[in-house]
């Protein structure tokens, strides 16, 4: 009896690579639109809507012949300002929905698209009003520079054969050089089709009880990683915010939900968002969804992406990207604004020779030349 072979869903398959890169094209275009719109007076909720709309428009131009192909948001646009660390995507009914940006605000934007479940997520940090004529200095420059260099180091350390805890150690050294610390418990994951939370993980600042228990792993060819870098000029500890949570995702846990509203909410999530994070604002009825999510989150079938705050005075820098690990090297397919030392003017620098050498290495892997066969002797 013949069996149908399941298509290869790794990036060893060129069709999968094409879908990742098409999703990345959409995400890169969308995040640049949002970052460019982060100006004095711009409202956070309008920026979030702009990002999500840009993803929808971008996806409408990709893989147009395959009408059944699933495409959508893999991470809803979040715009986190100053002490708000991440996951801030206010709904129209939130009290902070009308919050507007001011010159000098430190803004972190994150968003993502997927095509056929192959997701590309991007995140970056800017300062409102910054330019060569009005450069970023002080703590904000330190945090942004630390996040940038940490991201560059991680891209190089994802090469096959390296291990996750080496990444942890190197990033901590980079952050320290800029007077920063990685934020505790932020985890980067291997990602697969329809899954941003794969088995292999990288933690940049494990809590004391995690250091010995965190599973070690080795990177291998044809893996994909969602890299999340968050560094702060504070002590690395954040607290849950008073702002209302608006981003959620299914966990994969199964449970027979008891209430009708919870079942309706879960069904809508499954049909509309699949396994990817979503924002309450994109649901058909925000109020009904919030009611249904009470049981869903309590029983662990849906995860809440709680908003966290940093202490006043501390500055957080973020870099998030999707990376493809191949036998030829590590390719970063999502990118925010290019780091510009004329705009980000930190007085701190990396002196560690080992780290400097790492940052100077290529993201590509040089193939060893094949050995020539030994010449045969003639008598």
Descriptive notes:
There is one protein chain. It contains 7 helices and 15 strands. It has helices at residues 14-36, 44-59, 138-157, 164-177, 260-272, 286-298, 353-360, and strands spanning 71-81, 84-86, 106-115, 118-127, 181-182, 187-191, 201-203, 223-232, 239-240, 247-250, 278-279, 302-304, 308-309, 316-326, 329-332. Strand 14 (316-326) and strand 15 form a beta hairpin. The relative contact order is 0.17.
Secondary structure topology:
Blueprint: H1 14-36, H2 44-59, E1 71-81, E2 84-86, E3 106-115, E4 118-127, H3 138-157, H4 164-177, E5 181-182, E6 187-191, E7 201-203, E8 223-232, E9 239-240, E10 247-250, H5 260-272, E11 278-279, H6 286-298, E12 302-304, E13 308-309, E14 316-326, E15 329-332, H7 353-360
Antiparallel strand pairs: 1-3, 2-13, 3-4, 5-8, 6-7, 6-8, 8-14, 9-13, 10-11, 10-12, 14-15
């Amino acid at each position: 009896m013949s069996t149908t072979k399941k298509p290869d869903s790794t990036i060893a398959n060129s069709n999968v690579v094409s879908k990742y890169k098409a999703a990345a094209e959409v995400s890169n275009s969308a995040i640049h639109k949002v970052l460019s719109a982060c100006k004095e007076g711009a409202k956070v909720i309008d920026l979030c809507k702009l990002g999500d709309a840009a993803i929808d428009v971008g996806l409408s131009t990709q893989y147009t012949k395959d009408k059944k192909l699933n495409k959508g948001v893999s991470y809803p646009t979040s715009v986190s300002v100053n002490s708000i660390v991440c996951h801030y995507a206010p709904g129209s009914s939130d009290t902070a929905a009308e919050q507007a940006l001011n010159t000098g605000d430190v803004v972190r934007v994150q968003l993502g698209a997927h095509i056929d479940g192959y997701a590309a997520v991007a995140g970056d940090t800017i300062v409102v009003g910054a330019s060569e004529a009005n450069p970023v200095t002080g703590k904000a420059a330190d945090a942004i520079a630390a996040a940038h260099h940490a991201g560059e180091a991680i891209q190089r350390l994802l090469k096959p054969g390296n291990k996750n805890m080496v990444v942890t150690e190197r990033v901590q050294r980079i952050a320290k050089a800029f007077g920063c610390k990685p934020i505790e418990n932020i985890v980067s994951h291997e990602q697969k089709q329809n899954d941003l939370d794969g088995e292999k993980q990288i933690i940049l600042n494990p809590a004391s009880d995690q250091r010995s228990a965190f599973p070690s792993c080795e990177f291998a060819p044809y893996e994909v990683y969602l890299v999340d870098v968050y560094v702060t000029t504070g002590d690395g500890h954040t607290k849950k915010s008073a702002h209302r949570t608006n981003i959620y995702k299914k966990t994969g846990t199964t449970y027979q939900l008891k209430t009708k509203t919870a079942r309706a909410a879960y069904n809508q999530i499954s049909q509309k968002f699949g396994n990817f994070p979503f924002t309450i604002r994109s649901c058909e009825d925000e109020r009904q969804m919030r009611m249904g999510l009470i049981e869903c989150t309590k029983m662990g079938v849906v995860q809440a992406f709680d908003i966290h705050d940093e202490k006043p005075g501390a500055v957080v820098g973020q870099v998030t990207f999707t990376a493809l690990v191949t036998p030829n090297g590590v390719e970063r397919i999502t990118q925010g604004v290019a780091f510009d030392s004329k705009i980000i003017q930190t007085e701190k620098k990396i002196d560690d020779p080992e780290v400097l050498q790492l940052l100077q290495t290529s993201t590509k892997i040089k193939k060893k030349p094949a050995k020539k066969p030994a010449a045969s002797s003639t008598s």
